Amino acid sequence: MEVVRVLFGVWILVSWVLISVLGEGARGALPCDFPAIYNFGDSNSDTGGIFAAFYPAGPPSGETFFHQPAGRGSGGRLIIDFIAKGLGLPYLSAYLDSVGTSFRHGANFATGGSTIRRLNESYFVTGVSPFSLDIQIVQFGQFRARTSNLYNQAKKDSQRRNLPRPEDFSKALYTFDIGQNDIAAGFRTMSNEQFKAVIPDIIGQFAAAVQVSHTGKKGYFIAEHLSLPYLSAYLNSLATNYRHGANFATGGSTIRRQNETIFEYGISPFSLDIQIIQFIQFKTRTNDLYNQAKTPLERSNLPRPQDYSKALYTFDIGQNDLSVGFRKLSFDQLRAAMPDIVNQLATAVQRIYQQGGRAFWIHNTGPIGCLPVNLFYIQNPPAGYLDQYG
């Protein structure tokens, strides 16, 4: 009961925080003619972010309203969907969903499993998203800067149609639906006293995020030699063009899943098996969008379905698996893990082959000892620890 009383107090504090941060204008009646909505949160309001980043949504997602998986952890619509509909706006596209998205009337930065505070837990172990609220705010800042630049550089209306108008950021509605996963983590990992002690920090970080968002109201060398454009990143949803391919690589990725977080050692949550899942989902969705398109303009940034079997598939990964091994394993343990690393890479290539891929380019790993990150984590090494090549 003591924790329940604390949580009841949290809601009172949050209300006070919102009034304090937003000022007098938050107390008066505001007209509901918002041109856009920008949402931050967890699975309660995620409209496709976590499913675009990791596993695609399956049944019963979307069954009762969209009649197909719709990126929501729900059979129907979420509260954010009803808010958008009530304001006469379209449903929000997830920031992390780069296929068939439109950000003219806002964007959704929420991902299932997100927390207010960064938690040193893996998505694959406890389901905690790597996209905590502070990361979502960083994404929003980048989103605003890049879309404004793209909008101002665009020469035609067709280039602007899926981008927000720069002047709309100061008129938009900013919604937050987050915090339950911080509470769940507290129940799971802390005593009653420890949990009560972190509540002020949760509130403080939430207030900081609201304040930052409120300030808004004031593989290349290969492409070059093949005469192809530089690849758009799969996780980059702004001004992307997938006609000639897509890039699923992320800094810090590994072949094998590692039970480490990006905040601790820089290990990406998007291991090779997740990148393969993203590719399969990408192929399915772009094929559907291409076949449903009515005009050449709607197809111009989508890959042609027949090109998947003719494409070049490149793999450049593995050095982070070795780096993790050097940090955590003995020499014999790392040597014993090598067959599994190679087998998982082979499995990834095989899955692409099953999807129709026939041409593969697999890079070797880089010189591990020379990586600055290793010298950072292994400070003051004993004599003889490093060879003549570092």
UniProtKB/TrEMBL annotation:
Record PANTHER family: GDSL-LIKE LIPASE_ACYLHYDROLASE, ZINC FINGER FYVE DOMAIN CONTAINING PROTEIN
A Pfam family annotated for this UniProt entry: Lipase_GDSL
Entry's family note: Belongs to the 'GDSL' lipolytic enzyme family.
The organism's place on the tree of life at top rank: Eukaryota
Range of residues in the leader sequence: 1-28
Keyword annotations of the record: Glycoprotein, Signal
InterPro entries: GDSL, SGNH_hydro_sf
Protein name, per record: GDSL esterase/lipase At5g14450-like
Natural source organism: Juglans regia
One function term, GO molecular function aspect: hydrolase activity, acting on ester bonds
